[in-house]
Amino acid sequence: MTSDQTGNVAPPPSATRLRARDTLAMVLGRDVVRARDDPDTAGSGPESAEGVLLPLGLRLFLLSFLMLFVELALIRWLGALVLYLSYFSNFVLLGSFLGIGIGFLRARSRVNLFPWAPVALALLIIFVRLFPVQVDRAQTQLLFFGAGKFHATGPPTWVTLPCVFLAVAAVMATIGEGVARTFVRFRPLDAYRLDIAGSIAGIAAFTLLAFLDAKPVVWAVIVALILLLLYGRRAGLLQVAAALAVVGILWSESVSSTDIWSPYYRISYAKAGDGYHIAANGIPHQDIVPVRKMGKTYSIPYMRAPGDPLNNVLIIGAGTGDDVANALHMGAKHIDAVEIDPELYQLGSHLNPDHPYQSPRVSVHINDGRAFLEQAHSKYDMILFALPDSLTLVAGQSSLRLESYLFTFEAVEAAKAHLNPGGLFAMYNYYRTTWLRDRLANTLDVAFGQAPCIDNPNGLTVLSVSVSPSATHCGTVWQRPANAIAPATDDHPFVYLDGNSIPGLYLVTLGLILLASILLVRPASGPYRRMTGYADLFFMGAAFMLLETKNIVQFALLFGTTWLVNALVMAGVLVAVLAAVEVSRHVVVRRPALLYAALLAALVAAWAVPPESLLTLSPLPRFAVAVVIAFAPIFVANMVFAQRFRTTGDSGTAFGANLLGAILGGVLEYLSLIAGYRWLLVVVALLYGLAFITGRGHLRAVSREAPSGSPMAEAAR
Questions:
Q1: Tell me, what's the pLDDT at 25?
Q2: Is residue 650 very low, low, confident or very high in pLDDT (cuts 50, 70, 90)?
Q3: CA of 46: how far to CAs of 112, 173, 174, 181, in Å?
Q4: Are 106 and 156 within 8 A, CB to CB?
Q5: How is 451-465 classified by DSSP, letter by letter?
Q6: What's the CATH fold of domain 286-471?
Q7: What are phi and psi of 337, to 5 degrees?
């Protein structure tokens, strides 16, 4: 039985900043070759042969691996220890994006910050360990949805969030600068290959460790070893001490607790009588209770369908097995138990006193609930959504939750399609707010064409509805209020958002992120007035960030919100980026305006085929069509960017403009709270339209370039 949870999928790294940092060297190509061949330049910086143990190619691969690995580790670790990041899940991502961008802008600075990377990382870890922000269990009030209050340890939001944002930016700037200083020593195409290969390897390694239940100390050991290997004989006492401090602190954290690090949560559990209390990321999450002590509360759905034979039952959100044990107790002959988190399932297998997962009548599926509904072909006498949602958001957010696509109108329709005649669908939770309860009841009303039964025992709300009204024995029928909120949809899956708006708290926070980004980019990129000549790159950065977000969301709907799906999508984005760079290096587009036309056509095609329309296809054709629709705009957009960027005369200022645009794009993601994800394509098209208009002068200049002696021709060689 789940109570409250923070079910954030750790977001993948932004391909926007990968694409932007990689193409930064495109315009530096004139300096890249000189930096590699000029003995005066080649002997400077941490990349010089003296003291370096690794060949430059392996060094760049490891640096790119390290950057992605550390970014993912910070997202996971900070989210598990700082409660506020449950409300601002992309906060660490934006701080990382900004830091890496600044690091690349400092690629040729006189002062090298890369040796300070372990120190910055150690200071961040010490701060969070000294001032963790978690639910204060000493208080009777734990965590309330909506406008409710909760008591938390640690500093207040206005102190913790800025500190985390700036500290993450500092850590990633030091590592980003190390990547950049090695990056510019290669010919651009060679650098791209090594950089993207290392980035993909970083994603793959962290994904593998997540599924192996590796604790943070394992991440720390990997990071420390790579850092010391990269420093080689240049590693001083400070670097060694800081790296050992990172490992030591996280080792102490790991051995002092029984926490389990699943792909989604930091799970802790404690004995409670003959059961267990389970918390996720420090928030009360589930209770394992013997079925004999569950009482009648969780048996209400069975009471509402007394004639149901229960030959086949589906439970989504099976967790540690209480609801499965109850279904077995009520006589279910077969149960499909769906749980997204493998470690919660393992805990239930070992700790649940009724051992429901050992029953031959139970089939376990470790999968996203919505994905299972789309993939399964079975019919059920009863389908239960057994507290699978996370109720910790102040309001909806642009980052997807684990259950974002499980409570939409389309999801309920999919569940209805799996019911036998007379079958019953039920969902239950401690909704705590009347408007949320009414919204979900309204969703059932619209999908089934009848108002559901509603029960409220001990604060738990149970909503039950049947395909056949005569098969349901209702105690109380839900009455639609005059202000009932419309159902959430696959395009606007923010079930916890009361209305289509951006909450004021988010607006203030996002405004501060923009302000901090503007102030921090200025010293590295140069005066703002010089950026006006690169307005088209600014708009490209914003557009591509939104395009990337739309694709991640699309694949989450089509294939599930699991960590593996997100990692595969991000790897696919990087491959598309590399393909575009490869093509742009060997193909001179004399009329770049044609690329804008091709991009517009790809965006129109993506708009014409809504992602939900692909759910009717079998998995293989669905994947093929989704890849074409999602990655065609990414490929062409990178062609547009690459053709433009390598003709710039001031690479630092140009990259700064693109970086600020990308950060704006990260903020513009929240427009989906108002208009939905599909309309992000319209915003993307408008931004690329602005890029076309503001960059017309550059387009004409490119079209007039001669094939020989031009930067494009030089790059093609």
A1: 41
A2: low
A3: 8, 16, 13, 8
A4: no
A5: PPEEE-GGG-EEEEE
A6: Rossmann fold (3.40.50)
A7: -105, 115
Rounded to 5 degrees, φ, ψ at 313 are -125, 140
- The whole-angstrom separation of Cα 381 and Cα 422 is 7
CA–CA gap between residue 239 and residue 228 (Å, rounded): 8
Considering only residues 130 and 685, tell me which one the structure prediction assigns the higher pLDDT. Answer: 685
Q: What is the pLDDT of residue 50?
A: 46
CA distances to 287, 327, 378 from 275, in Å: 7, 18, 33
Residue 244: other Cβ atoms inside 10 A: 16
Q: Could you say which DSSP state residue 202 is in? A: H
Residue 175 is predicted with a pLDDT of 95
User: Which pLDDT belongs to residue 656?
Assistant: 73
> Residue 619 above 80 pLDDT?
no
| pLDDT tens readout for residues 508-541 | 777 888 888 888 887 877 677 777 788 888 999 8
Tell me which residue of 346, 366, 428, 426 sits closest to 391, measured CA to CA. 428
Burial class (CB in 10 A: 0-12, 13-18, 19+), 44: middle
Using alpha carbons, list the distances in angstroms from residue 105 to 30, 112, 455, 471, 524: 17, 12, 59, 67, 6
SS3 per residue for 392-445: CCCCCCCCCECCCCCCCHHHHHHHHHCEEEEEEEEEEECCCCHHHHHHHHHHHH
Closest CA to 46 of 179, 155, 135, 167: 179
**Pairwise CA distance, residues 467 & 420, whole Å:** 8
Structure tokens at 129: 């360990």
pLDDT of 706 above 50: no
Instruction: Say which residue the tokens 């009548």 belong to.
Output: 361
Q: Rounded distance, CA 662 to CA 461, Å?
A: 42
Which residue is it, tokens 């009471």? 303
Between 20 and 355, where is the model more confident?
355
Query: Which neighbouring-strand residues pair with 424?
Result: 382, 466
Sequential DSSP letters for 669-715 = GGGHHHH-STTHHHHHHHHHHHHHHHTHHHHHHHHH--SSSSHHHHH
Q: Are the CB atoms for 576 and 638 separated by under 8 Å?
A: yes
pLDDT band at 119 (very low <50, low <70, confident <90, very high): very high
Fill in the amino acid letter for 409: F
Q: What is the mean pLDDT of residues 306-312?
A: 86
CA dihedral 197, 203, 204, 205 (to 10 degrees): 110
Q: Helix crossing, 680-694 with 593-608: angle to 10°?
A: 170
Distance of CA 450 to the CA centre of its chain: 36
Q: What is the CA radius of gyration of the chain?
A: 27
DSSP 473-523: --SSB----TTPPPPP-SSS--TT-SSSS--HHHHHHHHHHHHHHHHHHHH
Domain ranges of the chain: 12-44+508-717, 56-214, 286-471
d(CA 534, CA 344): 50
Check residue 357 and report its DSSP letter. G
- For residue 715, what pLDDT is reported? 31
pLDDT tens digit sequence for 436-447? 899 999 999 999
103 by Cβ neighbours in 10 Å (0-12 / 13-18 / 19+) ranks as buried
Local confidence band at 383 (pLDDT 50, 70, 90 cut-offs):
very high
Containing H/E element for 362?
strand 362-366
Contacts of 450 (CB under 8 A, 6+ apart): 465, 469
Q: How many CB atoms lie within 10 A of CB 309?
A: 14
